[in-house]
Amino acid sequence: MRVADLLADPALNIRLAAPGGPGRLARPIAWCAPSEHMDPTPFLSVNALLLTNGMGLNVKDYRIWDAYVERLMSVPVSGLVFGLGAAHRELPAGLVQACEAHGLPLLELPPEVPFVLVMRHVDQLIAAERYAELRTGWELADECTRLAAGGHSLAQVLERVATAINARVAVLDHNGFELMSAGTAGGGTARTTLSLPSGGSLRFKLAIEGIKSSVVLQPLLGPVAAVIAMQLSYTLGSRSPLHSREAARFMEGLYEARGTPTPALERYAVEAGFEPDGEWGAVLIGGAGEVAPVKLRTIAWRVRVGLQAEYRTVRFMEEAGLTTLLVQRSEAGMDLMDAVRKSFQDALELSAVVSECGSLGELPLVLQLARRRVGEPGLHQAPVADLAGVVEGLPGPGLVAMARRLLAPLMSDGGPALRETLEVYLRHSGNTREACGELFIHRNTLTYRLRKIEEMLRLDLGDGEVRATCLLALKIVAGGS
């Protein structure tokens, strides 16, 4: 119901005396407020339509009219309907001048039309509009419910909502981070948000941008907000894993694989939607300490949604405290690290590791390397290789037997302490101070043990190649035991 609608009804015979400022005739009417007070503003609310006969304003001083209209504009009211006949035979010139000066629409009501007729007309139109809005809102909610129940994603539900209101809609998390969006802001300039009903600790909002100012959002999108909240609750609060069976089978196979990928692993890749010969990207997201599962899932889901805009194929697998995402790019675009960073800026209490490789044969070792790095707070790029990865990639049980034979003398009485000393010493690259600090022993004790290790193994630990061989042997034995 707009001010201009009153002029369009011939039964009311209302005449426009002052159009008000630009767009004022299109301002909505919330309710009718009859009043004869010189200052009715304490009894008014925004967009009330004021009806008056001017009984308390039978004055000729323009300043009084100007102050009266100025007070009405401070509310602001949608318009002023001035009834003739009771106190005034014609509109006061001062009132017309004040309305024109302040931009308030002034409507002249003839003596034969009572206020009650105007009020009934406005109430009927507002009631009809509210009913139409509610019906449209519930019809849209029913359609979105059918989409959600049919397995459609939250992104598809948002797309339907954006189409229905011709605006851009987005889901924001508790930090105001935009999780996903749909539509374009082409319908208008208005921006607003609706809270999504949620019983959890994380609060979400539905942001609407570019909607026409004539659209009343709460009746239209209130029911839809409940549907979106239910989808969010399932996505982020479900105790069941959300990954597909094909993606989980492929990634579990990758974590178990060593060396050359088997034909079964290549088949799993195809079934999960990947190209076995393509290049790969991996993102592992876990907690750096005690992190609520819903928080971890929220960030992992946010990263996945962000990656889907940049990559052709995105798959993920959930475990307790860890989410693994694999991606393949359709064409050159945003760097994987940059793509993840956009979704990770407000979640530094989590741990994320990003890695890339050029073949399926390399991918299992790359995933194992990245997995070992999860736990340090923040976002990190995994190194290209580490010693454990090199060892894990070495095939053959014979190599394990050779390493055990090399270290066999340290397995005798007193060996565990000597083996630990050797491992710590090599891990600290021969730094005596750091090795003593970790082992909590005196420098002389370390020197004694190292000399004994050299005698038992018949090696010179001063030789860099010997130290590298011993370190590899320790890693191989640890991995093969």
Structural features, described:
The chain contains 17 helices and 14 strands. With 481 residues, the chain is α/β, with parallel strands linked by helices. The protein has 4 domains: 3-113, 3-Layer(aba) Sandwich (Udp-n-acetylmuramoylalanyl-d-glutamate--2,6- Diaminopimelate Ligase, Chain: A, domain 1), CATH 3.40.1390; 132-237, GAF domain (Beta-Lactamase), CATH 3.30.450; 245-392, Alpha-Beta Plaits (2-Layer Sandwich), CATH 3.30.70.120; 397-480, Orthogonal Bundle (Arc Repressor Mutant, subunit A), CATH 1.10.10. The strands form 3 sheets. The protein has a 5-stranded mixed β-sheet. A 5-stranded mixed β-sheet has the order 11-12-10-13-14, sandwiched between helices. A 4-stranded antiparallel β-sheet has the order 7-6-9-8. α4 packs antiparallel against α5 (154-165), α5 runs antiparallel to α6 (217-237) and α13 packs across α17.
